[in-house]
Amino acid sequence: MEKFESFIKFLSSYPWWAKLLAVGGLLTTAVTLALAPRDSAQNTDAAADTVSFKISRVRLFGVDPEASVQVIAHINGISYQYPNVAGVEWVNVGEGMSPGTFQIPKAPRYEITFELNLKLPDTIKRLVSQEIVHVSRLPYENTYSLHIVEQHTRAAGVSASVSYSLARDL
After folding, report:
1. What's the pLDDT tens digit per position in 45-58?
2. What is the C-alpha separation between 162 and 82, in angstroms, rounded?
3. At what angle do helices 16-35 and 2-12 cross, to 10 degrees?
4. pLDDT at 146 > cutoff 50
5. Domain ranges of the chain
6. CATH number of 46-168
7. How far is CA 122 from CA 27, 67, 94, 119, in A?
């Protein structure tokens, strides 16, 4: 109440037209703020600063279709490993495999590469590619091809592919 009285005393030192404009401006501001819809993009929730990255499918070509895999996605210098469930290091490839979803930092552009570790009964093989995917528009969906590395040489044929997508969190 004391602040209101101070404001009234402050206004009383001005002419009537200045008082009218000051009070009118305050009323206009109050009504505008009360009636204007809030912009949901200004939400400070953490989800507004992330993007969903999803590994939806892994396919193997020319290798044991029952093999287990680890997929490592490198996005803007950060590595994400699938499977990403605590205590689970490998996932069997097949139609029923569950997708891996990650919340990644929102960025104006994404640089994406993959590598894959393939677990066979007697060995683990590494699959790589030289391809770097550049993404600047979301949503985005693609398939990334990988090649087996044997004795420090990358095979010519595609041995696996990873289907993935990026989408804005709502």
Report:
1. 444 678 999 999 99
2. 11
3. 140
4. yes
5. 2-36, 46-168
6. 2.60.40
7. 78, 11, 20, 8
**Are the C-beta atoms of residues 61 and 156 closer than 8 Å to each other?**
no
Q: For residue 145, with 0-12 CB atoms within 10 Å meaning exposed, 13-18 middle and 19 or more buried, which class applies? A: middle
Quote the CA–CA distance of 91 and 122 in Å, as a whole number: 17
Q: How confident is the model at residue 41 (pLDDT cuts 50, 70, 90)?
A: very low
Weakest mean pLDDT among 58-62, 149-153, 157-161: 149-153
pTM listed for this prediction: 0.69
For residue 75, the SS3 value is strand
CB distance 147 to 127 below 8 Å: yes
Higher pLDDT, 53 or 2: 53
